[in-house]
Amino acid sequence: MSQPPSMTRSNLLSLKRQRNAVILAHNYQLPEIYDVADFIGDSLELSRQAALTTADTIVFCGVHFMAETAKILSPNKTVLLPDLAAGCSLADSINADQLRQWKAEHPGAVVVMYVNTTAEVKALTDYCCTSSNAVHVVQSIPPDREILFGPDMFLGAYVQRLTKRANMHIWPGECHVHAGFRAEHLQKLQQKHPNAEFILHPECGCVSQCLYMMDQKQIKTAKILSTSGMIKEVASSPADEFIIGTEVGIIERMKRDVPSKRYYPLKETAVCEYMKKITLP
Fold first, then answer.
1. How does pLDDT run across 84-95, given as a tens digit for each residue?
2. Which CATH superfamily is 178-270 part of?
């Protein structure tokens, strides 16, 4: 049986207008998805767009929890996820029953969950944060209140380091892509590009080592940022070279926005297969 012909870009954009749809694309999406997107950004930016849009339909080019979040923020809109298999290993690291049990073990604790969670987990959460505002959210909680933070343990460790919260418990979850970054990757890229500025996502497994190396003057400059923060940093920094510690797809966005600078992936195989499930028809 023959396959239906592929939809051209002009056909897709025409259909989008007919359906009064908006296409939201995460920074980790493929370049061809960028080309048809109305907005490109990180979880927080896209959540805000979902809440503000006047479109009848939201086509979310990202992973499952992101589309769920868009529906929560725009309950009267139709939200479409192009591939339901676009999941998230981090969101899968904690479920509602596990969170209920954790809360039972720490009665009265304030629950702060990363946006990379299912709707069922969010429903049991006091505060939902992103990598952009996690530190500020934790700082807003009275210092005497116990905190349950999850599900990313590396983001949790980073937040705890900055806020100095001794009464903060961290769930042992991780993003399989970001957890793969190691100290040896830092050392290898530092030797290869000694003048480059390191930019790491707080979910990276090597954040603590990176901060230590910077304290020891082994790394010239390093910043821990959300993906939107990374985009702003490469545009505003006087540096010409950057070592990027996150999913490699974001480098395409950087090259488009600031083509005059050079970008090196901290780990070339740091690819999220779930994000890449979203393709053109």
1. 999 999 999 999
2. NadA-like (3.40.50.10800)
